[in-house]
């Protein structure tokens, strides 16, 4: 039986939390749902010009890049780069830092999310060891267009959240090729998502802050997301969606505070009987690390 694979947010900024969860899953498997594994942890290193989806400013030293890659890869967990900036021009392809990151992680294990055809072609030509994944930021919302992309050489395609809880998922073939975003904090049918993705891409390129009001959903409690039409419940995930042949699920969280991400992990990964104990263990461990 195929494993249910979860893709966790933010391999750098939420490194401590992710390391705790990955270790606990190995040490205390009885506390977690059966038949699950961490498929990858996605994100970028601060300062990555090619990053998209969420603004990630800052600076990362080479030593930090190597250390993070080693910690995940030594546990058998791929790092998945969110190189989904939609506004890239040819001059951006020669960014020293992003090329360094890809060169350091080009070991056949790690992955890259793409949106820009220009960057995708560049990565395929220069870094052939990566699994290439089509990002949900492409915002493809029809079965016909998704199946057209599925004929291309993508390892995985991350579906637009508009497919969630609809009959469209039953129309797709080769379901092991698709990844479902389970818990997007964004409002249903958000009319601003395309504008936001472009603004994030611009801000990343210009070392600026995104010039749009912060989405009002960003500060919502995790359990408020359950009211979204696109929210995939744990019961449906482990029940009908897995039975339909879907086994890849992305957990949102790059823009969340750590406590919201913890609740997401408790809800999707941990059996209800053990959630309080695992949550307390995680909080105490993070407190020790911060202290």
Features:
10 helices; TIM Barrel; 8-stranded parallel barrel; single chain
Per CATH, which architecture? Alpha-Beta Barrel
Run of helices and strands: EHEHEHEHEHEHEHHEHH
The largest sheet has its strands arranged as 1-2-3-4-5-6-7-8
Question: Distance between termini?
Answer: 42 Å
Question: What's this entry about, in short?
Answer:
It is built from 10 helices and 8 strands. It is of the alpha/beta class and 291 residues long.
Description:
The structure is a single chain. By secondary structure, the chain is of the alpha/beta class. It has a single domain, classed as TIM Barrel (Alpha-Beta Barrel). The chain has helices spanning 15-27, 62-74, 96-104, 117-126, 143-150, 168-171, 193-205, 234-244, 258-269, 275-290; strands at residues 4-9, 36-43, 79-83, 111-114, 131-134, 156-158, 178-181, 248-250. The protein has an 8-stranded parallel β-barrel with strand order 1-2-3-4-5-6-7-8, surrounded by 5 helices. Helix 1 links the parallel strand 1 (4-9) and strand 2. Helix 1 (15-27) packs across helix 10 (275-290) and helix 9 (258-269) packs antiparallel against helix 10. The radius of gyration is 18 Å and the shape is globular.
